[in-house]
Design goal:
The structure is a single chain. By secondary structure, this protein is mainly beta. Helix content is about 5%, strand content about 55%. The longest helix is centred in the first third of the chain and has 8 residues. The N terminus is likely disordered.
Length: about 750
């Protein structure tokens, strides 16, 4: 689709909303800021849980009901300049891409659940997404989404933005239940198969009558089979092999496709308990405990090759096809099991004239076991393979905030701290499925810590003008990092050098009214994102020196540093709002990693600094309520230039659009209340084709590339009674086939039933 077609569509469609935030584990249930301090796009029913500086979006019940939400991240799918890399229902690698942060820059977004950090800053790529699945869609009361690092309350991981998820509170004794099924017919290469899944979700609330206690307990069971994530391509070989048929010659790819990884069978179980206590002195204490288990099984890899003489299937080895000799490889079987826990406590109340909030949380993974066969034949025969065991990776976070008003000033000071730690051991096994007779082969481990102090002063200048200044100091430490490998039957460890760094990040925001119906906001800020454990401690051994190969990692990997600006103009009249946002971000030492299957089926990864990346763009957001009786329109369109300005290590990348960032995005939603109990919605998601590599040489609409996508979604919901609601919808109505290296979902049918008790 051409940009010229996006603009008129955008102003006939939909968006969610805008709101700003607090520090990395901040209290989300404080009293909202005064109405005149809030510049918000989106829902107005619930108070904004965060402060609005820079472009911010707030989503609530009205927006959620118009979405076919299978997983919690689906609730945000129509947000401006926003994309979640969700490859199938239940995908636990759903990385957020907002503005100029792409789908392999997971460490540039802070995600919080009820004030507790669920961002996985153990790495910075596609397999370190936020822990979305600790909560189900029916649990969510509100999403607040913030673009850019314009508040001193957040550390450098807010370089891309901040997402705050607020769940339902136990305000009365009640219950809820929800059931859902999804069906996706899938056709590509040798696949002509219908995949399906379901979820069951429910919970109870208890509120003590005339008492301080409250409890909310909930559960969710989810199962789905998603399409294959990886296609296997033949590679040129020498020698000879049996003649075969069945390969697919795709002119978009360099070699024929002969098979695919197994469809993904995923099962997830989640249990959640929230306990609240309110004192007569205005103090509130909340405790949260979540357990989540995930099992992924890939036991049915596909080969479409058949022996030309016997017709027997061929899964691997040298073969003859189309007059050439090829090698068929990399089909295997795998199974992964993970158990994860989140525990946190939150206190809020008055303290010596100040409003205090304090959060403390722990996220840990006591069981992380991934087992993979060597190849297809050994896998089918229960033969050799590998297993990777996590040694309780996870993180600790804490946050303290003090706020009070002093005349025209609203003063806020705070402190935050976190610790991220990982340790993974890899073994070769005689039986990949049972992990029998494990033999140690490798280990990686390491820790990072970060603590920060910050100060903000919001000054009311009168006449609806407010200026906010802030400053943040962060101190970072990377330590206890190393790798291990066996030599002569004994484990050999080598350690990385410790790293320390710090940052001072000033912030400034001013907002007010240019006219009675025209608001303006200008936000400026700097940020510094320090490297994660995964970016620092992923080298390899030199077998000659039996030490870490200095060429396998960058010992001088530097933190990313950004300078940001955001100008917002917002016009509103008679229920209609038009918001224009201009943004700019200049990043020094951007950390880039390409990791995943390229068009040849080869997995490529690396971590290096790109000297300078400059990005700027514009976002237009249109909201109109009751345009016609019962018709609401929310739509947005965004354009961005994100280019590598300087890269001394590889000057050929200079001037190219940064990978995985499309120039154009448009999301939207039309909502129509046909009658009081019956609602209809139409949504869309569009992104132009981005570059797939740093040099801008890999572009295509096929497997292995980042492609253009354009999907139309429809949904109808019917309130059967005041307590029971039936919903049905279709995502990707016209079955657009698109790729984020891996194939995205095709046309999907969703049916759900919700009940309040």
């Amino acid at each position: 689709m051409r940009p010229a077609l996006i603009l008129p569509m955008a102003f006939a469609g939909c968006l969610p909303n805008i709101a700003y935030a607090q520090s990395e584990a901040s209290h989300l249930e404080q009293s909202p800021a005064d109405d005149h301090t809030i510049l918000v796009v989106g829902q107005k029913v619930a108070a904004i849980t965060v402060e609005a500086r820079g472009l911010s979006v707030s989503l609530g019940k009205e927006e959620f009901e118009a979405v076919n939400a299978v997983n919690v991240e689906d609730l945000m799918k129509y947000t401006p300049n926003f994309f979640v890399r969700k490859r199938f229902a239940g995908d636990d690698n759903a990385v957020v891409a907002m503005r100029g942060a792409n789908t392999i820059q997971s460490a540039r977004t802070i995600v919080m659940l009820d004030g507790f950090v669920v961002s996985n800053f153990l790495g910075n790529r596609w397999d370190y997404p936020p822990k979305w699945n600790v909560v189900g869609p029916a649990e969510v009361r509100q999403f607040d989404i913030v673009y850019g690092p314009y508040s001193a309350r957040y550390g450098g991981n807010s370089m891309g933005g901040v997402i705050s998820v607020t769940t339902q509170e136990p305000k009365e004794t009640s219950g809820y239940a929800a059931a859902q099924t999804m069906i996706m017919p899938f056709q590509e290469y040798g696949f002509d198969q219908t995949f399906s899944g379901y979820s069951l979700e429910g919970g109870i609330n208890w509120k003590q009558e005339n008492g301080p206690w409250s409890v909310r307990a909930s559960f969710r069971h989810f199962h789905n089979t998603g399409q294959s994530m990886t296609y296997n391509l033949l590679s040129p070989a020498a020698g000879a092999g049996p003649e075969v048929t069945g390969a697919y010659d795709d002119p978009r790819l360099t070699t024929p496709v002969f098979g695919a990884a197994s469809p993904v069978d995923v099962t997830q179980d989640q249990a959640r308990l929230r306990i609240g206590y309110e004192t007569s002195g205005g103090w509130k204490i909340d405790a949260l405990a979540i357990a989540w288990r995930s099992i992924q099984v890939l036991n049915e890899p596909r080969s479409w090759l058949k022996d030309a003489v016997s017709g027997a299937p061929v899964y691997q080895g040298k073969v003859g096809y189309d007059g050439k000799v090829w090698n068929a490889a990399s089909l295997n079987l795998s199974r992964s099991t993970r158990t994860e826990y989140l525990a946190g406590v939150k206190l809020a109340g008055p303290l010596a004239g100040w409003d205090m909030t304090f959060n403390l949380s722990r996220y840990w993974i006591p069981k992380q076991d991934s087992r993979t066969s060597k190849d297809y034949l050994t896998g089918a025969a229960q033969g050799v393979g590998t297993t990777s065991i996590g040694n309780t990776p996870g993180w600790y976070t804490s946050d303290l905030t003090l706020e009070r008003r002093l005349g025209q000033h609203r003063i806020a000071i705070g402190a935050s701290a976190n610790l991220y730690e990982t340790s993974v051991d890899t073994f070769s096994t005689a039986n990949w499925r049972t992990a029998f007779a494990p033999v140690f082969t490798a280990s990686t481990y390491g820790k990072t810590s970060l603590w920060g102090l910050w100060f903000e002063d919001e000054v009311d200048l009168g006449n609806d003008w407010i200026v906010t200044g802030g400053i943040r100091y962060d101190r970072w430490h990377a330590f206890n990092g190393g790798i291990a490998k066996p030599y002569s039957g004994a484990r050999k460890d080598d350690r990385y050098p410790e790293r320390r760094d710090s940052a001072i990040s000033p912030k400034l925001s001013i907002q007010g009214k240019l006219a009675s119906e025209l608001d303006i906001q200008l936000s400026l800020g700097t940020s510094k994102r320090f490297p994660t454990v995964g970016e620092l401690f992923q080298g390899r051994f030199d077998d000659i020196t039996q030490a870490i190969d200095p060429e396998s990692f960058d010992p001088h990997l530097r933190a990313e540093r950004s300078r940001d600006a955001n100008l917002i103009l917002r016009y509103g009249r008679n229920g209609t709002h038009l918001t224009g946002s201009l943004f700019y971000q200049d990043i020094d030492d951007a950390i880039f990693s390409f990791s995943g299957a390229n068009q040849f089926g080869t997995v490529v990864n690396s971590y290096k600094n790109v000297d300078r990346v400059r990005q700027y763009g514009v976002e237009l957001i249109f909201e109109a309520h009751d345009v016609l009786p019962g018709l609401d329109i929310d739509t947005n369109v965004a354009w961005i230039s994100a280019k590598t300005e300087r890269n001394l290590a590889n000057p050929a990348a200079e001037g190219a659009q940064f990978p995985r960032i499309p120039k154009w995005r448009s999301n939207g939603n039309l909502r129509y209340r046909i009658a009081e109990p019956l609602k209809l919605s139409l949504g869309w998601r569009y992104a132009s084709r981005p570059n797939s590599d740093l040099l801008g040489q890999q572009r295509g609409d096929a497997y292995g590339f980042q492609s253009e996508y354009f999907t139309i979604d429809v949904r109808v919901s019917w309130a059967l009674t005041k307590l029971i609601q039936l919903g049905a919808g279709i995502d990707n109505l016209f079955n657009d086939k698109a790729y984020v290296a891996h194939p995205l979902p095709q046309r999907t049918f969703v049916l759900d039933l919700k009940a309040r008790l």
